[in-house]
# Entry
Amino acid sequence: MSEPLLEVRNVCKAFGMGGLLARYRFAAVNDVSFTIEQDRHEIFTIIGESGSGKTTLARMILNLVPMTSGSIRFRGTDLATIRRPADRLAFMGHVQPIFQNPFEAFNPLKRVDRYLFTTARRFTDARSTGEVESRADLALRKVGLSLAEVKQRFPHELSGGQLQRVAVARSLISEPSLIVADEPVSMVDASIRMSIVNLFKTLRDDLNVSIIYITHDLATAYYISDRIMIMKKGEVVESGPARTVLADPQHPYSILLRNSVLSPDAKGELLEPQFSTTERDLAGTR
Amino acid sequence: MTAIASPAPGDVIAKPQREPVLVVSDLRAYYQTHYFGIVREVRAVDDISLHINPDEIYGLAGESSCGKTTLIKTIAGAIQPPLNVVGGSVRFNFGGAPLDVYASTPQARNAIRWRHLSYIMQGSMSVLNPVRRVRQSFIDFAFRHIGQPMPQFIDTIVAHLERLHLQANVLDAYPHELSGGMRQRVTIALATVCRPEFIIADEPTTALDVVVQKGVLAMIRGIQREIGSSMLFVTHDLAVHANLTDRLGIMYAGRIVEEGPTAEIFRAPKHPYTANLIHSLPRIGDTAPKKGLDGVPPNLAEPPPGCRFHPRCPLAMDICRRENPAMEPSGPGRRVACFAVTRGEPS
# Structure
């Protein structure tokens, strides 16, 4: 198969902002292109500060918001042509999301296992309760949990790390070929962060899933990603193999980002603040 | 404030190390509920002792739900039922005027707040009142503590904002008009405008980007050095601790398990939990596989017997399942609560 798995070409997304008279267009994502190949399973990382458009890009890849211009093709199919519910369902089975805060992704009033069962009913051919449960259990075992641990539990009864694992397990039920993970570890504790990050590595190596990993944490990005793309204000400023880019960034913004990472080996010395160059006076005055 | 026990000049020379600003001894604070005859007790702060010296940043690290925030609340004296202090004491010493938080009157506690003891809070969006201008927030927080007429008070604030590289026009802005980093700097300015001796910072940079975070941390450090206050800095991000704090306490399940100078802890962690935390930190330029910690943090309502870390501990011994290790000195300035360290390696 020569079709790329995901082809993002010149994608733009603009939001209209302001009132009736002082209306202007704000480009959240501006001319972004990248490709993920079909047979090379990789972790593709998108890095950027808040407001750099990385979440908007993720939502467009998940076909949750329409793009303003450009095209996204998944296995050759343009996402804009996916209109019928059946096509949408098939697409959702192939591309699954993982969200930032597991405590917000799960409804606190509903049991966690319900999400697994509904996903299994919708995306697999399992119909009886026993089949659905075995699908859920299979997915949970891939992330190091079992159905016995999460059955009948509410989100508050599980720790953040467990809940994020359940979220990963839920996305695996439909056996996707692409997972879009939007800041999956930024709300998780340091001690659990690495086990989630290692889980992504396992998914890539053992289950042949490609992962789009969106983050602002350069250290974990360096640790797991194969390729990396740095975004600033909706535009790609630098992209390439992760190790090369992060070891020797070229663009001034990438260098600033790289230098801002707090090294755990520091000796308690911080540099002078550099607000004058990175921030405007009032965010309201564009 | 009158000095009750000001030390004689001879004393100061004999004791170059000044009195600690904060001494917490054997503090226990439990959430206790009695509903329908069922008594439930969550031991969020269990037997914690620590002291913080003048002009020192003391870091507190630990995962969520290990009791960090409860400890801060208890130290600040800002607790209400079901959280109760069961035992121990919190004593402040501001310029020779000692104050035992739980043995003094509410009036005495109120008198130290913000003037001597202030607080940098976590979510700057929810701390600042969204329908009041920043100027009003400053008046609400600090006007009665500074005791100047309004024009001079505003001048004081503007001068103080300048230290944090903020211009006077932020006073007329609403919180939503400011970026996240600026809002966080406003809350830092609020907490430091009275030049307090003791500042509690609860995850002040967790919600910020890396670029902004570094600047805000540098400012926190700069202003702390300038006004010479002590600081209790809480975050679960160990990289922040490595860059900012002088001494570090690692908290696990309601207890402090290791304490010492930050650089020493990073160089040679002793407690297995600390060692795992530090060895699992990802670093740019290092691709060696890192292992996260397996297992689940304990439920503080029914903590495991003995050492609370033993179900996840690679060095667990028999004694760990039965007895709770006490904090024991281990090397200069360091304390650790682990049988495997204080009684030698397991055979």
